[in-house]
Amino acid sequence: MQEIVVIDTSMMRKASGFCRFPDTAGLRMLTFLIVMSGTIHAFAQSFMPRQITGREDSIRQKVFAMGLPVVEVNTVNREFPHYYSVDAPEGCWGMSITGATKVPGRVTISLGDSLLFDSGEYEEDISGMTIKIRGNTSARQPKKPYKIKLQKKADMLRRGDSRYNDKNWLLLTTLGILADVGFKVNSLLGQPWTPAYEHVNLFFNGEWKGVYLMTESVRRNPSCRINIGTDGFLFEYDSYWWNEDIYVESPTLDRPMHYTFKYPEPDEITPEQIAYFTEMITAVEQSLYNGTYANYIDVHSFAVWLLSHDLLGTRDSAGSNYYLTKYDSTPASKVTMANLWDFDTAMLCDERWSTLHGVFYFKSLFDSENQAFLREYVQLYDAVAPTFYDEIDDWLEQLSASALAAQMEEAVKWDGIRWNEVRTPFSEEIENARQWFARRKVWMDAAIDELRLQILPTTIKRPSDDEALKTYYNLHGQRISMPRRGINLKNGKKYVVR
Predict the structure, then answer these.
(1) 3-state DSSP call for residue 301?
(2) Could you give phi then psi for residue 163, rounded to 5 degrees?
(3) Of the four listed, 92, 203, 364, 384, which is most buried by Cβ atoms within 10 Å?
């Protein structure tokens, strides 16, 4: 059997010339025709049909015995997706991929002897799926993240409700506790949507690829994901804008990052929508400096998003996925921060703010003479702090005693052996997270008190000298009739009632 693959590099925008070709273990012969600058370069490679060995069968038994759901992807002709590597142009950040191929096939999910999900064999727009490599830096690692697109909407997480049906699903290489903790914080702080997920083992064309996080992708789906109108926007402040065909430059922010689009899709967005978005985002950014930002952004959503990262101590300020939405194209619709995403650098900023605290819009919001954001941020912490730390510690304690923890302990260990990398035991990561939030409470309480002092002059009306001697205020600047347990303010001084 012979197959000819033609690759025209003139069609691969920004291609560096490096290409990962499909795994073709199921083909007798594969001929590559590579067109570079009009010149055809050809080579052929023969392959023997793949047979399952006794060792592979032993691995398969061991993986199924771990107890996690098993995702099996089998593609047409056993082809693996490939991509081109690209590096950022001068003055930009990051490294990424382009030309990622979509490979058709079938995906199933099993648990023990039970088949939980089956896409069926590939038939365009009817059954099956396509799969491609996704991500930027992560895509260039030996263990690849993938995007699955079903040909027919379904819920790969099998929640028994058709409103969760969608075509788009992700298999992320995220290991350990970070994603679990990040999504839990997202939920506890009241985000409208927290992506659902499941830890799984992955077999790709019979080869065990290790432990993955199967999750919903960030996309418009009013019934179960991002709820925006048909004339709304889901967009990202993106350090990888240089690898997109459509982007809008940030008019005022002094960073090598610009805005890219998740909805409308880049190949569907119209010039009129781009013009509207450009005018809108210019007004938003200008409002950060003239103090009118509350007319353009949902202040509460920005406070929730940043406080979540500050509680997590996120260190990555460039790749932390700043997802934003605008519900529709009317003036009444404000720019809103969407859910958290990407927790690879969580719990790394010990005894300091997350690196996100002083970048993007947040530095201007904290520095603005209009202290609406500062007040919202402090008041939000005061509202969640009394229960947040206990709730997340209780959740971590329950997780440590769960069957999932035992399954992940074994799975993470074998994933490390599979990829020849050192993995922190799952139980140790849970304990590290519990200790993190215990320390974080002490630091955050003190840091918030420092912020609180910054808003007092604008929230307390100066009383007369006689009135000041008998007037008390709480730390929100609100007048109270009697001092209460904790810190009170009287005549410009702090009084502690124990």
Answers:
(1) helix
(2) -65, -15
(3) 203
Tokens, residue 152: 């027919």
Is a pLDDT exceeding 60 seen at residue 44? no
Query: Quick one: which H or E segment has residue 496?
Result: strand 493-497
pLDDT (0 to 100) of residue 175:
83
| 35-43 contacts, C-beta under 8 A, 24 or more apart | 35/6, 35/7, 35/8, 35/9, 35/10, 36/9, 37/9, 37/10, 38/10
Contact partners, residue 355, CB within 8 Å, separation at least 6: 314, 315, 316, 317, 349
- Angle, in degrees to the nearest 10, between helices 426-459 and 372-400: 160
DSSP string computed for 24-64: -TT-SEEEEEEEETTEEEEEEEE-PPP---HHHHHHHHHHH
Torsion of CA 365, 367, 371, 372, to 10 degrees: 0
Q: Which of 297, 443, 312 minimizes the C-alpha distance to 372? A: 297
Helix (H) or strand (E) holding 286: helix 271-290
258-263 and 129-133 beta bridge pairing = unpaired
Angle between helices 426-459 and 299-312 (to 10 degrees): 140
Handedness of CA 430, 432, 433, 438 (dihedral sign): positive
Three-class SS of residue 362? Answer: helix
Report yes or no: 81 and 133 within 8 Å, Cβ to Cβ.
yes
| Overall pTM > 0.85 | no
- Asked if residue 343 has pLDDT above 70, the reply is yes
Least-confidence region, from 149-158, 253-262, 415-424, 457-466: 457-466
Q: Is 312 exposed, middle or buried (0-12, 13-18, 19+ CB in 10 A)?
A: buried
- Per the listing, tokens 């920005």 go with 302
